[in-house]
Amino acid sequence: MDISITQEALSQLRTVASAESVDLDDTLLRIAVVPGGCSGLTYDLGWDTTVQDEDQLTEIGGLRVVLDAKSALYLDGSELHFTDGLQGDGFHFSNPQATRSCACGESFGM
């Protein structure tokens, strides 16, 4: 799996985990691609404590990250960013495989 997370996003993920009382020693960040949005696919981030047989597990910047096999294919080469400014706050993916995205940037297509 070739996915990266910027330092800003790692810092914000740790901040969110702390605010939500998430123990990162026992909890993983699950990144997934799910059907939805006006372009067909959306990104999903969440905390998880289980790893399925078909999941791919890696560590990025000290954070354990898990993706299901299908999402890993969609996210290969992607980078997770966090922005805090006029262009919109939040987590955003730079995905070189996305061939289109909606105007609001919340969904993508391939």
Automatic annotation (TrEMBL):
Gene Ontology process terms (BP): iron-sulfur cluster assembly
GO molecular function: 2 iron, 2 sulfur cluster binding; 4 iron, 4 sulfur cluster binding; iron ion binding
Taxonomic superkingdom: Bacteria
Domain Core: 1-105
Pfam family, any one: Fe-S_biosyn
Protein name (database record): Iron-sulfur cluster assembly accessory protein
Taxonomy of the source species: Bacteria, Pseudomonadati, Rhodothermota, Rhodothermia, Rhodothermales
